[in-house]
Amino acid sequence: SRSIDLAVIPGDGIGQEVVAEGLKVLSAVLPEDVKLETKEYDFGAKRYHATGETLTDADLDALKKHDVILLGAIGDPSVPSGVLERGFLLKLRFAFDHHVNLRPSKLLPGVATPLAGEPQIDFVVVREGTEGPYTGNGGTIRKGTEHEVATEVSVNTAYGVERVVRDAFARAQARPRKKLTLVHKNNVLTFAGHLWTNVFNTVAAEYPEVTTDYIHVDAATIYLVTDPARFDVIVTDNLFGDIITDLAAAVSGGIGVAASGNINPSRDFPSMFEPVHGSAPDIAGQGKADPTATVLSVALLLRHLGYDAEAARVEEAVTADLTERQGKPARSTSEIGDALAVRVAG
Amino acid sequence: SRSIDLAVIPGDGIGQEVVAEGLKVLSAVLPEDVKLETKEYDFGAKRYHATGETLTDADLDALKKHDVILLGAIGDPSVPSGVLERGFLLKLRFAFDHHVNLRPSKLLPGVATPLAGEPQIDFVVVREGTEGPYTGNGGTIRKGTEHEVATEVSVNTAYGVERVVRDAFARAQARPRKKLTLVHKNNVLTFAGHLWTNVFNTVAAEYPEVTTDYIHVDAATIYLVTDPARFDVIVTDNLFGDIITDLAAAVSGGIGVAASGNINPSRDFPSMFEPVHGSAPDIAGQGKADPTATVLSVALLLRHLGYDAEAARVEEAVTADLTERQGKPARSTSEIGDALAVRVAG
Ligand SMILES: CC(C)[C@H](C(=O)O)[C@@H](O)C(=O)O
Ligand SMILES: CC(C)[C@H](C(=O)O)[C@@H](O)C(=O)O
User: Fold this and answer.
1) How far does the centroid of ligand 1 lie from the alpha carbon of residue B187, in Å?
2) Domains of chain A
3) Which ligand 1 atom is nearest residue B218's CA?
4) Cβ of B145 less than 6 Å from ligand 1
5) Residue A325: its pLDDT value, please?
6) What is the model's pTM?
């Protein structure tokens, strides 16, 4: 009999609420013969304040034993900027070698976009997750003086770039349009830019069916608002990916529906799925958060584990729910979760 | 009697056409007692192919003698990516210490925006121009092998950050809304982020009337499409500024109307004014390019030289022209320039 051993990290703020709904939908969609085991972890601001810990070696050992991780959101204004981001989220992505940060953007029916007209949006960003300016390399001298110098070092390796570029080509090849766009800034960041461009062109030779193009990250932001239909799959570095996926989420219905996966395709470590949104402390505990982004992250989780039919059912349920939601009064977090659980079970 | 000694760099592609119109408007708006002297320089792809030169020390010495520089656009697909960008544009910005890269975004009447509704857009980005990931620091080892490592180093100094932050506070103080937003990614790029944030907060104490806030660059892209009215003045680093000003241009009517100044406020070196758009080789030589961005750059140039009334006249002419243009057949580059020259003279 099959089983899923899931680590659950609700985290801070609305993370708690949306993860509960994600689990509700996950339980409802799984076939009866699949045993779902969950273990909850208390990472986040509360634990940090109580113990000073963000993510210990023992925590990593414990998490490592699970098949997969579902994360709500980590972050709270009471914790200095960077402490939980670097100490928990990035530490985990790096420790578990989550080099494929997968962020699909699809404008679903009935979802409001800030763009005029009726844009067609259906693309996926493959963001590198373990290199670039996110490595923490760099430093500060003469801190706090008028002679302070602070550096940030973007580290890019052929090994790291090639594996994510390969993943992106495989994804492009599997999609109907078979188009892959490299986003970088190779006219200014020439060292990293040449590496990315060379690797991209080399791997492209193995995928003759995939149409490729290149655009600078600044121009990419223009196309994301004027012609998002031009994108099918995008591959890009860690920082550019961070920036353009927030914009992509905004134009395709907002962070209420944006899902993501921090994936280790080799499965040496568990992958982690999380909504793109943060902990939103301003609306936490009020049942106002939209759990849709978490539920769509559960769909990515299911697909990662090979439950393709179940993943599709979750996505269809979300589409149906969003369509029906139009023009109706707002529902609470758990009402939306309940409705989705009923649909996927049905 | 007054005079302006202007270096003119038409550059590549549509740069030639739009600069001609910029000069037309500049000549028309200047009072009779102001003597306008211009000298044209042949930088760009043609000269690079003919001589291998992008910008020599002798060129810099010659340019240095002018009061100010008007640039069209530099760049051509026949030149490898990075050669003219690093060899001409960035070399000049760094050599002349253009640390204030000024990019206003205003949605003018009759200008189409990709955003739905009727967004209010009137802000200015003060982008740092001489530091960050643009310094060219970094390198490559084992180039072209599977063990290649490429680094890019973002360099940030208290000196460099403070002067641009001060410039931004002064600009915010002079505007009716008096609001300044720092855009960075201080939760991930903690070394540079702390420097920027500390300097920002320190200078803020000297400007009690200016309201300040901070947002991460990824979130900034969301606000730029969902709530651009929240911005008045933005100060940010070189790379983040590059990215968000393209997006800002896109939402406020496109790069056809986006102007910029590469400013050295201490006037040790001439400042340079240029449209944000590139050389657009696909439409070059056809009279299709909109010279408005260049004409608005001329307005920034005039204001920089203290010709405030003339700058305002140019901006008013553009606003009037855009209003009248609505629903009419497209005009050629020189027709638009002629119309603007008539307006400013009138
Ligand atoms: C919270 C932060 C560290 C993170 C990132 O920059 O990757 C977030 O913005 C994201 O996109 O997941
Ligand atoms: C052409 C390129 C070097 C330049 C930059 O990145 O600064 C351009 O994008 C700009 O914004 O002026």
Assistant:
1) 8
2) 1-99+257-346 (3.40.718.10), 113-252 (3.40.718.10)
3) 9
4) no
5) 87
6) 0.97
